């Protein structure tokens, strides 16, 4: 009889669940590993007894006695009986069930040889084997059906992954990139870390197609030209797809190269067009069809105001084909830059602030992009500087070829300039560049990056002023050809007015150029520029003075028959001036002298005011030098005229005095003024008439000088006489007094002195009878010559009124 043992006391089990081949540790007291030791567990919800080997209804077999640790705990290993791969749970049987089992065990052992449980187990095993034999085929079919059903369930459950490669291809072809990205993100989150081979295989196919999509999107991103909207869209797609590298920066670099290529291609197209084809358009890129706002829209509206009479009021085809190639190129170049650079700049701003990327990509790559932005700020600044540099250099090559270095002439020039652009076209180009600068400033591009454009504008303004003044001088040279010699009531032709109007128009055309826009410096800030402008202004004045000199010395044969307008209040006393009359050299001298007087008193002063109004520097110098040159010409021409008019009169005095062998020592008593003096007066009156017909204001100046010459000669002749008889002295005094009294209104201190010296050379009248005779003869002379002497009286009346 075997000795009874204390019943086992189980205090815990771990783990309490697991899959087949899970090791379970049972803790307690009086635990044995023999075949008769019992431990109560619940497996998969079924109450079971674990012996040396026992198979539960769920085909989970537990072996007891395989191991025992130093604490006395039993380690049990579970294994599968052929079915069941899911997790099962283990739970201890209730103590009362263990007690019942022990009682049955004890009773069975006493009555039956061997263990009742062992025999029961054997019976159950045989029953199980018999059942397996009977139902093996059915169970096999059931297992196959279960496998098929499980496979179909897997296919149905994971059809998203299995169909994804084909769906990706279809959506890429349709351009539904958003759908592709969403599906990819879903697949990545579900199967990105799977260990199932089938899933890994299909997910690898997905990755292959996504990589091809990345390459496709990158190619589209780097295509040129493209819109900013498309660029942002492709960059966002690539960001969502976690593309390697920095696609946004690659796009910025590609756009930079594209803009530079466009600019240089535009120049090459126009240069080639200039050499071989009279057309103006470059075939490479026609931006006239661009729907974006353009600076030229504003230019076309204001062109007529800026260009003057030689420009068309609208930007029609006729005007376009009159535009010089270089000016048209600058228009096209600036339009090109303004169509490309704003999007380029906005792309950079979006790159900096992260708006190019989705929220997910923004959060995940924010730190990395911040590093990239800091590193690439200088690189982008260099890109903008290169674009600005090319814009300025290409513009200089077209408009200011002398301002670029020889080494850069081929790259930025090559226009083969035959003539300089006029100031009007330069002013138009300045307006174009100014509006370009304003548009770029509106993009909030830093001023230091646009400084080269400001420098270009200043150089263009200076060059425009110089060219305009030079062109003005050329125009003024041709004014001499426009002289019509038609004299108005003030003794002037239209030439001074044309001269002033020419300068005023030139300065007016420079108004916009000289005006300083915000941020611009004055054209005259450099002393060198001030000096050059001052010298050109002086040259303009001196060119006109030279024209006057040329007109005054022009041979008679070169003067066309013209019409002289005569003041209707001043009768043509001698009929020497008619409506149709060929001007003599003396009359031309008078007309030029009259113009000179008006220039000195009015025109030059008005021009100085216009210069000052337009902020010209060195106006005092311009005025002084011009006035000096004008006065020099005036004096030279006046002396020439006096010489022409006074010399014949002066030369006729001496022969007239001694005509008929007249002798002061032996002459008859005087009966009146002799003819030589009357002829001299008539000649003076003729000079008066000629001058009066041209210019009333010149009469006093001319006659005063003529009378000075006559009085000086008369004084010399009187002083040369050795002695006078009484009659001779009386005759001489009569003629000297008659001449002096007749021209008294035109006497000058010099002529008065000459008459005084002449009278002092005569003997004094000794008797009252001689004085009375002298007075009678003078009155008789004045009475007989009253009609002829009226011109002197009219002059006296006019001078008294003034």
Describe this structure in words.
With 802 residues, the chain is an alpha+beta fold. Helices cover 65% and strands 6% of the residues. It is built from 25 helices and 9 strands. It has helices at 95-111, 116-157, 159-174, 177-191, 197-222, 228-240, 247-276, 295-307, 317-322, 325-353, 359-399, 409-412, 423-442, 447-477, 495-509, 511-514, 527-552, 585-613, 619-657, 675-694, 698-720, 726-742, 749-760, 768-784, 786-801, and strands at residues 9-14, 17-18, 23-29, 39-43, 46-50, 53-55, 60-68, 74-80, 88-92. The strands form 2 sheets. The protein has a 5-stranded antiparallel beta sheet with strand order 1-3-8-7-6, with no helix packed on it. β4 and β5 (46-50) form a beta hairpin. α19 (619-657) packs antiparallel against α20 and α21 packs parallel to α23 (749-760). The longest helix is centred in the first third of the chain and has 42 residues, at 116-157. The protein is rod-shaped and about 210 Å long. The chain starts with 8 loop residues before the first strand and ends with a helix.
List the helices and strands and how they pair.
Elements: E1 9-14, E2 17-18, E3 23-29, E4 39-43, E5 46-50, E6 53-55, E7 60-68, E8 74-80, E9 88-92, H1 95-111, H2 116-157, H3 159-174, H4 177-191, H5 197-222, H6 228-240, H7 247-276, H8 295-307, H9 317-322, H10 325-353, H11 359-399, H12 409-412, H13 423-442, H14 447-477, H15 495-509, H16 511-514, H17 527-552, H18 585-613, H19 619-657, H20 675-694, H21 698-720, H22 726-742, H23 749-760, H24 768-784, H25 786-801
């Amino acid at each position: 009889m075997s000795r009874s043992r204390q019943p086992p006391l189980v205090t815990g089990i771990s783990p309490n669940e697991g899959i087949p081949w899970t090791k379970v540790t049972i803790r307690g007291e009086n635990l044995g590993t023999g075949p008769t030791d019992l431990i109560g567990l619940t497996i998969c919800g079924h109450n079971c007894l674990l012996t040396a080997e026992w198979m539960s209804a769920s085909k989970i077999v537990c072996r007891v006695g395989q191991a025992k640790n130093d604490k006395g705990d039993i380690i049990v290993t579970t294994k599968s009986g052929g079915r069941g791969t899911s997790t099962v749970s283990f739970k201890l049987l209730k103590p009362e069930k263990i007690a019942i089992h022990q009682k049955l065990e004890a009773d069975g052992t006493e009555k039956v040889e061997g263990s009742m449980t062992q025999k029961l187990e054997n019976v159950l095993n045989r029953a199980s084997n018999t059942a397996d034999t009977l139902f093996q085929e059915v169970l096999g079919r059931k297992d196959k059906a279960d496998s098929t059903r499980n496979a179909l369930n897997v296919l149905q459950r994971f059809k998203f992954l299995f169909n994804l490669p084909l769906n990706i291809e279809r959506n890429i072809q349709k351009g539904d990139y958003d759908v592709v990205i969403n599906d990819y993100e879903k697949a990545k989150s579900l199967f990105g870390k799977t260990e199932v081979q089938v899933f890994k295989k299909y997910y690898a196919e997905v990755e292959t197609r996504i990589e091809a999509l990345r390459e496709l999107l990158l190619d589209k991103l780097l295509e040129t030209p493209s819109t900013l909207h498309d660029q942002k869209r492709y960059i966002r797609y690539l960001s969502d797809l976690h593309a390697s590298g920095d696609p946004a920066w690659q796009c910025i670099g590609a756009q930079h190269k594209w803009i530079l290529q466009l600019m240089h291609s535009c120049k090459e197209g126009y240069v080639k067009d200039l050499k071989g084809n009279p057309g103006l358009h470059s075939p490479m890129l026609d931006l006239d069809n661009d729907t974006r706002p353009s600076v030229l829209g504003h230019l076309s509206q204001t062109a007529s105001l800026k260009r003057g009479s030689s420009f068309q009021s609208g930007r029609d085809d006729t005007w376009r084909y009159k535009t010089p190639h270089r000016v048209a190129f600058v228009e096209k170049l600036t339009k090109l830059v303004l169509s490309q650079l704003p999007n380029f700049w906005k792309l950079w701003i979006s790159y900096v602030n992260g708006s190019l990327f989705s929220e997910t990509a923004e959060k995940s790559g924010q730190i990395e992009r911040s590093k990239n932005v800091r590193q690439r700020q200088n690189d982008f600044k260099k890109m903008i500087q290169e674009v600005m540099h090319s814009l300025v250099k290409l513009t200089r090559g077209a408009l200011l070829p002398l301002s670029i270095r020889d080494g850069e002439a081929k790259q930025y020039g090559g226009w083969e300039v035959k003539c300089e652009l006029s100031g009007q076209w330069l002013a138009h180009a300045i307006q174009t560049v100014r509006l370009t600068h304003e548009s770029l400033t509106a993009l909030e591009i830093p001023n230091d990056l646009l400084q080269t454009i400001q420098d270009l504008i200043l150089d263009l303004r200076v060059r425009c002023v110089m060219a305009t003044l030079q062109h003005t001088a050329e125009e003024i040279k041709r004014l001499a050809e426009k002289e019509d010699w038609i004299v108005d009531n003030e003794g002037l032709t239209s030439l001074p007015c044309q001269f002033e109007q020419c300068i005023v128009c030139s300065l007016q055309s420079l108004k916009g150029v000289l005006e300083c826009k915000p941020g611009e410096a004055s054209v005259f800030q450099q002393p060198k520029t001030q000096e050059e402008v001052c010298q050109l202004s002086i040259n303009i004045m001196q060119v006109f003075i030279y024209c006057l000199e040329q007109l005054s010395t022009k041979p008679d044969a070169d003067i066309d028959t013209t019409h002289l307008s005569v003041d209707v209040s001043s009768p043509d006393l001698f009929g020497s001036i008619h409506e149709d009359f060929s001007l003599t050299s003396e009359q031309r001298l008078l007309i030029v002298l009259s113009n000179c007087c008006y220039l000195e008193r009015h025109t030059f002063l008005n021009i100085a005011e216009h210069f000052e109004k337009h902020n010209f520097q060195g106006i005092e110098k311009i005025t002084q030098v011009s006035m000096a040159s004008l006065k020099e010409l005036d004096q030279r021409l006046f002396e020439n005229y006096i010489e022409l008019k006074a010399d014949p009169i002066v030369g006729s005095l001496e022969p007239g005095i001694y005509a008929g062998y007249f002798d002061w020592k032996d002459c008859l008593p005087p009966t009146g003024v002799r003819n030589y003096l009357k002829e001299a007066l008539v000649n003076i009156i003729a000079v008066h008439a000629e001058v009066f017909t041209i210019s009333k204001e010149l009469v006093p100046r001319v006659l005063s000088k003529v009378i000075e010459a006559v009085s000086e000669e008369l004084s010399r002749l009187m002083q040369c006489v050795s002695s006078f008889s009484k009659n001779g002295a009386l005759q001489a005094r009569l003629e000297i007094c008659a001449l002096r009294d007749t021209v008294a209104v035109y006497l000058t201190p010099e002529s008065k002195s000459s008459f005084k010296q002449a009278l002092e050379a005569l003997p004094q009248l000794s008797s009252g009878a001689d004085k009375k005779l002298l007075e009678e003869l003078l009155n008789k002379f004045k009475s007989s010559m009253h009609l002829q002497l009226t011109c002197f009286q009219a002059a006296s009346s006019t001078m008294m009124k003034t």
